[in-house]
Design brief:
Elements lengths: L17 H7 L5 H9 L15 E3 L4 E3 L2 E6 L2 E9 L7 E20 L45 H10 L2 H8 L14 H18 L2 E14 L3 E5 L3 E6 L3 E4 L3 E5 L5 E5 L2 E4 L3 E5 L1 E2 L2 E2 L1 E4 L10 E3 L1 E6 L4 E3 L8 E5 L1 E6 L16 E4 L3 E6 L5 E4 L4 E13 L1 H4 L7 E4 L1 E12 L1 E4 L4 E2 L3 E5 L3 E3 L5 E3 L3 E4 L4 E3 L18 E3 L3 E5 L17 E4 L11 E4 L4 E5 L6 E5 L3 E3 L5 E3 L4 E4 L5 E5 L5 E5 L1
């Protein structure tokens, strides 16, 4: 039986006196920042043995600041509302001893707080908060390599700069390396202290919990409900010794700060409903924290929202013959981690988990920042159905200090669809065996380690996109230039679309037609790749935008000059969309077209 009325017992916060809390807003512990960054999501999902003040779950309720603990086996409805958020939040914990089933209910925060209101967060525009003088730059430790990173300014140090009144010294102290010597605006003592206080407050908020829905043993099953997780505080939905099974219901995670963690120690099955993680709210990007790596080249805010998937088993998404779930992550990161610690040296490691997409959709989009994966284990994606989409805004592509969104995991496409729009699919030994790949905008599918193998399916390539690395890519275009090791193409259909050049101008790969390129665009080249194209490959070129005549496109298929091997044993016929032969791919990688 559920409790007929809301009975809430709170555990008092441990932040101390109001004066202590006020002082803490201007002092950030770099140690705490570093520990927070180093901690994997599964650390937050360790079992909680504290049974203090646990009450039966009511039919709904409003929860103020403090920790609220309840027990339940089934949640079939109710409106559950947090009325406190941020650095002194309401932390609501609902725990099932032998499994937990969520059949309904709404979980939300009444008034999500914005702890960085009025503080500039943009890269190259934000106030620098790291003290440029290294703590070991003087004294006994000056002669040895630094053991610690740079430290955040203290409020007293900030006040000293402005009391001195030296405008050049102030400018140098609070201008980040990303700013190209352009100081932030406004650069006042009040603005710097506000940014420093916001950095402290965001870190304190992200280390505390908003919602914890857990099952000690057995499965945690979500069939319905609305989980509106809009908070800087972290969230956890976990089957600690079972599977997390998501059949329906809608999860929306946003607000920056702490990650939302979905844990199924024995496996995760995402079969229906929707799961969304957004790093921007109403078009404004959210802060995760001020970068805690203690490096001057990372002297900025980290923006977005993280979604963590934690398991020792596989992650199954959708099932054949069903609509499957809609999973969307924007302006952030998907972290995939093991639930248990890896075995020691010499111990047998458990099988590597895999992400199995069978139906439904996974979408990664970067509007304000790149959206990508962070992997805590060797993981492979096997796509047998459904759709994987990766995209980036054009403004992101046009900013050299930013990288495109990417699915950075070994991927095997057997059926289904991969859409890359200003996006990248990068993974060791990836393979296209079937299905459809659409490359639009400036996109690429490549394997910087191992080989990219194409033996089936269809790949549709826009004029700026590449199979393999992007030719001409460099550090001037992206922090992570593309690189392709060996590539073997001996099957499948490659469809290329041409845009017409200006009159009298030649057709150029990467401008007027996409290409095939194996090479390393990084300054320190490591690869001497071999690009093999066999007779089982079908090449189709849409020449509808070209006038009649003869055309030759140099280096349509190519490797790094002097640093690789192009292996095309015999010319490969080229067809138009109707199937007519209109030219050939020569053994030197050039494409010859004859249009009547």
């Amino acid at each position: 039986m559920k409790a007929p009325a809301l009975i809430v017992r709170t555990l008092g916060n441990t932040l101390g006196t109001p004066e202590r809390r006020r002082r803490m807003t201007h002092h950030v512990s770099v140690l705490a920042l570093s520990l927070a960054l180093a901690a994997s999501p599964h650390a937050a999902a360790s079992p909680a043995d504290d049974d203090t003040n646990v009450a039966p779950l009511p039919d709904g309720g409003r929860f103020g600041a403090g920790v609220h603990r309840f027990s339940a086996s089934v949640i079939d409805g109710g409106d559950f509302v947090r009325t406190a958020d941020g650095i002194e939040p309401a932390s609501v914990e609902i725990r099932g001893r032998d499994g937990l089933v969520i059949d309904g209910g709404t979980f939300r925060t009444a008034h999500p707080v914005d702890l960085t209101r009025g503080v500039e967060l943009g890269r190259g525009k934000s106030i620098s908060l790291y003290n440029k003088t290294h703590p070991e730059a003087s004294g006994a430790g000056a002669s040895r390599a630094p053991r610690a990173g740079y430290q955040l300014y203290t409020a007293a140090q900030v006040s000293e700069f402005f009391a001195n009144g030296d405008a050049e010294r102030i400018r140098s102290a609070f201008t980040s390396a990303d700013a190209n010597d352009v100081p932030p605006e406004p650069l006042t003592e009040m603005a710097v202290l506000a940014a420093l206080g916001a950095a402290s407050s965001v870190m304190r908020a992200r280390d505390q919990s908003a919602w914890k829905l857990t099952a000690d043993s057995g499965d945690l099953v979500v069939n319905d409900g609305v989980l509106d997780f809009n908070s800087l505080n972290q969230n956890l939905i976990a089957a600690r010794d079972g599977k997390l099974v998501w059949n329906g219901g809608d999860l929306s995670s946003r607000g920056g700060g702490g990650e939302t963690t979905l844990q199924g120690t024995r496996g995760i099955e995402l079969l229906g409903g929707s799961i969304s993680s957004a790093g921007a709210v109403n078009g404004t990007v959210s802060p995760i924290y001020y970068d805690p790596r203690q490096r001057l080249d990372r002297d900025r805010w980290t923006l977005g929202k993280y979604l963590a998937l934690v398991t020792d088993g596989d992650i199954d998404i959708g099932s054949a013959g069903t609509p499957g779930p809609a999973i969307r992550v924007s302006d952030g990161m998907v972290q995939i981690m093991r639930a248990s610690k890896p075995p020691g040296d010499g111990a047998t490691r458990p099988p590597a988990p895999s992400v199995n997409l069978r139906s439904g959709s996974i979408s990664l989009h970067g509007e304000h920042r790149s959206t990508l994966l962070a992997l805590g284990a060797d993981v492979t994606t096997v796509i047998g159905g459904g759709t994987l989409s990766v995209s980036s805004s054009q403004s992101l592509i046009d900013t050299p200090t930013e990288s495109p969104s990417m699915w950075n995991m070994q991927t095997v496409l057997e059926d289904g669809t991969i859409n890359l729009d200003n996006g990248q699919l990068i993974g060791a030994d990836s393979a296209i065996k079937g299905g459809v790949v659409n490359l639009t905008g400036l996109s690429a599918i490549y394997s910087p380690m191992g080989a990219l193998t194409i033996s089936g399916g269809a790949i549709n390539v826009d004029p700026q996109s590449f199979i393999g690395a992007i030719k001409g890519d460099s550090k001037a275009r992206s922090p992570y230039p593309t690189a392709q090791q060996d590539m073997v193409i001996d099957g499948g259909t490659l469809n290329f679309r041409i845009v017409a050049p200006e009159p009298g101008e030649p057709l150029v790969v990467g401008t007027h037609i996409g290409g095939i390129f194996a090479g390393d665009n990084n300054p320190a080249k490591k690869s001497e790749p071999t690009l093999t194209i066999g007779k089982g490959t079908r090449i189709i070129v849409d020449t509808g935008n070209l006038l009649a005549g003869s055309y030759r496109i140099a280096d349509f298929a190519s490797v790094d000059d002097g640093d690789g091997t192009l292996a095309i044993a015999a010319a490969v016929p080229v067809h138009d969309p109707t199937g007519a032969v209109i030219g050939s791919l020569a053994t030197d990688g050039s494409l010859a077209l004859q249009l009547n």
